[in-house]
């Protein structure tokens, strides 16, 4: 066709006629998932789960399998039911030893089987008074159309006489009845064998779907099935007998398989067009290396702005000094109170630190924060916190004890010094990211960076004092709480933000703020996915174009669903169940697309986090004038901990963008509360050293 320059044809589909039959019937009946041809030849196809097809990569969705069942028995499996007539027919065929099942059932061979049986009976003197004609000796003289005519209900006997006379024979009425009986036996066996093979396919479909009863339709075509008067009825009856747990409808293909070929082409064309539209959306989330390098460079620039006195007020990355000037060195000891304030819970801890052995024992109690206090004033919140502390000290039998206290919380806070907030023995007020770094720093002295990738996203690191213009003094280091969630609030990453990011931002409590966090943190990823799903549904690419009320509900698609859907162990059936919980009636194809959307959104989030982190580690390497830097990052947060791929993608991105930095990632097992106690212990140690000096 390519050689014909005057033809402009795009060949989209090349299909077997059985597949064409199934597709023709599936257009009229969506339950049709099997195609059978019983004509000159015989074959079947059916929809198989991809996870069972080893020959094709991928395990999502289903694919039509062309069984080519005509060759069943070529390995000898049918040896016990093949007759001498089957063997004789096979030896005289064009392909001896091949297509043995087809030779027992299809239209090309039934007439020949009848001829061989009649010839033997005539030779034995059981028919035609022992007389034989040359036509009866000639291969192919009895055709399947003759067999069908002889089996007709009323005119069958008359047809039989006419056909036998045409073969040069002089049959009696008894001969005609016997010949008709031979035809019935041969065609009945064919229908029985077809039914048995079809029953095997239907049983497999039912088991694949894990259902008690299967409702399905079989698309049928082929001259034998169409013209033989008794064949369809016999086939249907035996199938229903063999698979009583299947409700089977048999649908005759009126237009043959050519309409099916057109249907396959139409489906292929639609799928191809839809795939292009879906890929266009997913491509928005696929960041190139150049884009990631650009994000890294811009993050680096914002870090520098935040450290400078002149540009600090304009920087989107706040770079807040924490007044944490040292990491644990193992000499810390004593009892400390730690307070850990999150979004919905408040935790009070008693932390016992023993020096030398790096031993920490913790006792804690979790207090819920009532909604009215969560939404109330700061004074009400802190009154509640003080009451919780009093309850905890009472619970631990420590009422009236004077204990150093550390306070860590998940919110931005500009600090003037480490211990100015409370009139207590010694207090450390720290961000949870700093607490995470200190927790891991106690185990690994090389840990100088803290990262939280959870509901929110933030990062802190140990910066040289000489670079922090906001704080006096040029000696030593101080931990900087970057508050990097605001990166991009000045529009510097608008080139990689999508329409979906804009929709999520505009619908948030703080439009225009924390743009980087809204692209990377657990609080927003599910909402980005929801916006994409709504758009794809509007385009008719998902859920049959029907947007459910649940899908319209903000916050319904939680980030935990991303982790579940993207799990490698999760089959599509389980993905569909998750979507059903959300009120989304999805097909297998829908489930595949939803999984891809979740993957694209979380992949971008991990890469963006990695690019930001790469900016920090490269800055530390250059600041120290090192050719190669070894550093540990303490990590916490549900997204990093629970998502099946987030941590790996983040680590790979850092490795690619900062190749001269050997970065170890250490998971914080005890959260940031332990870190608050350690900061308090370090502050106390440093204060003691100051007094002694």
Question: What does this molecule look like?
Answer:
The protein is of the alpha/beta class. Helix content is 46%, strand content 16%. The protein has helices at 17-28, 84-91, 100-105, 107-123, 134-137, 144-150, 156-166, 173-209, 223-227, 231-242, 258-283, 289-307, 371-374, 378-396, 432-443, 499-506, 515-520, 522-538, 559-565, 572-581, 588-623, 638-642, 646-657, 671-692; strands at residues 32-38, 42-49, 62-66, 214-221, 246-252, 320-321, 334-341, 345-354, 359-368, 405-409, 427-431, 447-453, 457-464, 477-481, 629-636, 661-667. Strand 8 and strand 9 form a beta hairpin. The protein is elongated. The termini are far apart. Residues 34-267, 448-682 form the Hexokinase C-terminal domain. Its EC number is 2.7.1.1. Residues 278-420 form the Hexokinase N-terminal domain.
Brief rundown of the structure:
Keywords: ATP-binding, Glycolysis, Kinase, Nucleotide-binding, Transferase. This protein is of the alpha/beta class and 693 residues long. Helix content is 46%, strand content 16%.
